[in-house]
Amino acid sequence: QVQLVESGGGLVQAGGSLTLSCAASGSIFGIYDMAWYHQAPGKQRELVATITRGSITNYADSVKGRFTISRDNAKNTVYLQMNSLKPEDTAVYYCNARIALSALATTTWYWGQGTQVTVSS
After folding, report:
1. Which terminus of the chain is less hemmed in, N or C, by CB atoms within 10 Å?
2. How confident is the model over 44-89, as pLDDT tens digits?
3. Where is 85: in which H helix or E strand?
4. Farthest CA pair distance, the chain
5. In what side-by-side order are the strands of the sheet with 67-72?
6. Rounded Cα–Cα distance for residues 92 and 116 (Å)
7. Beta carbons within 10 angstroms of residue 29's beta carbon
8. What is the DSSP letter of 63?
9. Phi and psi at residue 88, in whole multiples of 5°?
């Protein structure tokens, strides 16, 4: 089975920085697209940033210029560097990855369990 485990969340003051990590483990043949989502209380889960296996990135308008997504393919890990954090960035952040379990298998999207980020004003 595949597991995605996030880490790096916490409490930070507005203007501060945090770096989230998400490591994939299990019987993995290949990891293709990876992404970060966030979900604030009472709101729907929203896409924050995506990165392809070749490191092409895309960002939600609300985080452009402040967040950076990156990956280490050798470690099956994706990162989210978050700078200039705002109270409205407060949410649970989820890792999402499109993974193949073998050379002949179709890909499946997997989710991590989430990590809480709280930004105080």
Report:
1. N
2. 999 999 999 999 999 999 999 999 999 999 999 999 999 999 999 9
3. none
4. 50
5. 2-7, 18-26, 77-82, 67-72
6. 4
7. 12
8. T
9. -70, -5
